[in-house]
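Re: beginner question about structure tokens

> Can someone show what the tokenized structure looks like for a real chain? I only ever see the sequence side.

Sure, here's an example I had lying around. Input first:
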Amino acid sequence: MKKAHGNYVLVTAAYNEEALIELVVQSVIQQAVLPERWIVVSDGSTDRTDAIVGSYAARHSFIQLLRLKKEHKRNFGAQVHAINEGCKELKDIQYDYIGNLDADVSFDPEYFGELLDHFERDAKLGLAGGFITEERDGIFLSRKHNRIDSVAHAVQLFRRECFESVGGYMPLKYGGPDWHAGVLARMKGWRVESIPELRVRHHRPTGTADRWQRDCFRQGCMDFSLGSHPVFELVKCLRRMPDNPVVLGALTRLAGFAWCYWTRQQREVSREFEEFLRREQMGRVRRLLSPWANSKDRRLSELSPDATRGVRGNVAKGSA
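And the corresponding structure tokens:
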């Protein structure tokens, strides 16, 4: 007999996603456990995003297209606004879990069923999702900085009580609503887990050569705005020196953090949040410097070759 799950709902913010939106739509409609409702928020799209989603919504009653009319460039605050508008459409729906799903990902048909199994086995699990993989030479491999205790924004699924306790997503000047929500969840006593065995394919190319400086500097500003400890930030940037662009990316991120520090930028979080985050971060630094912790970290990293080994190809396009 098939295991019964709690039901779930999804929200996707989509802005001019005609090139990729069908991959995630196909992934969702092929799920062994379908969502109760999926709100796709077309946030001022000017391409064929609306038409593509609308054609699927006409054939699948759980898909709902919500159009926001105002046109704008892609930015972090607008995305959170779109997600929050989608959440409002769910106020009359009975559900146990609510998830954010980016418009540029795909995953296997058992993804949500297996994810719900994890929630059903652990009543304290408040936020979970799969590991992000990205294509390299035709193979989807685990993203380098995936962590078991942090869930990527693209695939965050919350227990409803957890989502309500953190107040949903907060629009932040420099981004990081997923990080903010994850830390708040742990502050509220919930467990947060990214599951290596559940692979999610990310199809949008990562930062291009003409924008890496801006992106890395913005990430440093984001770290500062959320209250990162300066020692932790230094250690993190040192560890990311080998990442592309080698050395320059990490230095630019550190420069963004330092600029906010010396210009006395206003942090966007409460003092309580900052203190909690810094305790977590300095605990990680101490574990990193401990010989015993290093051996433990190596054991955890051994999950990667097997649990996140490459997966060739995209989701096959089945009939709608």
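Each token stands for a local structural state, so reading them left to right follows the chain. The mean pLDDT is 89.
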